[in-house]
Design goal:
alpha+beta, five-stranded antiparallel sheet, about 180 residues
């Protein structure tokens, strides 16, 4: 039984069917108030034009793609083809117009086993070896290009962002005189 008063009936009605049997009354629609069902939320866009369909981001999950590259490149039987599959140009042009030639793929494996933190007052540092659950393993990937003057190390995204100009070269054979 409710102790508060706000306009709803507290009777539990029954009704008789055509054969004289008593049945509970069908549930009533909830009235406005704390028992009212919540409105449904429409999250779809039901009438989106076909030309306005979302396009998947071609660089989606690039960090996962890079991790897979690092994991597999060292075991690739044909590293040249593997680079082509990964869209890494052998000769590329960057946004500044520099022509870059791929020389090397570098992969480093790093394991952090200790931590250094500054002491209060700046008088020194405190070192702690890390317990096994806090040891971190990382890999770094770099593509080393030469631009005619020096080396440039590019990360995975930057290398894939180069304009690929590494098409095969052609030359003509001329008969000897």
């Amino acid at each position: 039984m409710h102790d508060h008063r706000h306009g709803h009936d507290d009777h539990h009605a029954t009704h008789d069917d055509d054969h004289g049997h008593a049945h509970p009354a069908p549930p009533r629609a909830a009235a406005a108030g704390h028992n009212r069902p919540k409105a449904t939320v429409q999250w779809q866009v039901p009438h989106r034009p076909d030309d306005d369909a979302p396009h998947p981001d071609p660089e989606r999950d690039l960090d996962l793609v890079e991790a897979s590259f690092v994991e597999s490149f060292g075991r690739a039987g044909d590293p040249t083809s593997f680079l082509r599959l990964a869209n890494i140009p052998f000769v590329g042009v960057d946004d500044a117009g520099r022509r870059l030639h791929l020389l090397r793929v570098e992969m480093e494996s790093l394991t952090d086993v200790g931590a250094v933190s500054p002491l209060l007052g700046g008088a020194g540092f405190h070192y702690d070896p890390l317990p096994a659950p806090m040891v971190s393993h990382r890999r770094r990937l770099a593509f080393v290009y030469h631009d005619g003057r020096g080396l440039s190390r590019l990360d995975f995204a930057a290398a894939r962002g180069l304009t690929d100009v590494s098409a095969s070269s052609h030359f003509a054979l001329t008969p000897e005189g």
